[in-house]
Amino acid sequence: MLKYNKIILSFLSFLFILQVPYSLGIYITHEANIEKSLSHIQTRLALDLPRLSLPDQTLNNVGDIESVKNYMTKFNSQLTQMGFNAKINTIKNISIAAQDENLVERTLLAPSEPIVIKVALSNLPIYEYFSLIPLLLAMLFVYLSLDHIVVWQNRGQAILVTEEEKQDPILIINLKDKVMINSETHLSIPLANKPLCFYVALTEFCTTNKEITLNQNKDLPPELTELANKYFLRLIELGHTVRKRPNFSNSLEKTLSEIRAALDEVFTDTPDIKSIYYPPKAHGEGSRSKLHHYGLASIQKQHIEIIGK
Domain for residue 137, yes or no? Predict the structure, then answer.
């Protein structure tokens, strides 16, 4: 629907851009025609006045009103043929038509007395200001620019989707290549078999077992061990190792250290989100270390993507 709105908007914009100059041109031409008409009428009457039988009180001459009216009728016919938008209406109180509101008075100098004339100006009908030409040109321009409108539409949608769906980087673990990848920077860091399998298992375990505390002084939960073994078997299927399954409970601190070191590199440019993926380090010695929990408390399923699973 938005696409058609943009097409309609483009069409109306083109039509406005084309129609306004056209209408303005018609208006200017009409005004110029009026001025030219008035000039022509005054010049022609000034030349014809001596031959017109007009009333003249100073000479007690009543004139020939009918001949003056005939003159004005013929004169107006000539004005129409010449394309002028004005007609003579009155010469010295002799009129050939009802008084029009759109009359212009002019005064001609004569030997005996000034002669007042009235000229009726033609109003241009409103439809004269419009034409099919701007309409057809607007349709043509919209047709020619349709591809650009579609691109504009798609670009607007892409920007909208990008703004709405933009997310923080996530961690991608590729079992086929044995690497961890930052989805934003595409930085790829390799990881050995044991820490890789244990970490994938840890992320999956922690997304569904938030309430279980993982402490290095306790045995691994059976579910976590089972997941780690499952991913190690997957590495064997992918041809990365032929060794037997390791004991993931042994050297757990070393395994976690290797994982942390890899995560430090993966999230070098985005440290603000590393805490989601980073197994917390133990702080303190003795009894305080018994409270340590290396589980991923904040991780969710949408935070991680496993390739080759």
Answer: no
32 to 26, 35, 79, 186, 234: CA distances (angstroms): 10, 5, 15, 71, 90
Residues 6 and 113 in one domain: yes
Domain extent, residue 35, equals: 2-129
pLDDT: which is higher, 223 or 101: 223
In tens, the pLDDT along 20-77 reads 888 898 889 888 999 999 999 999 998 888 888 887 766 666 678 899 899 999 999 9
Gap between the Cα atoms of 179 and 308, Å rounded: 11
CB-neighbour burial class of residue 24 (10 A; exposed 0-12, middle 13-18, buried 19+): exposed
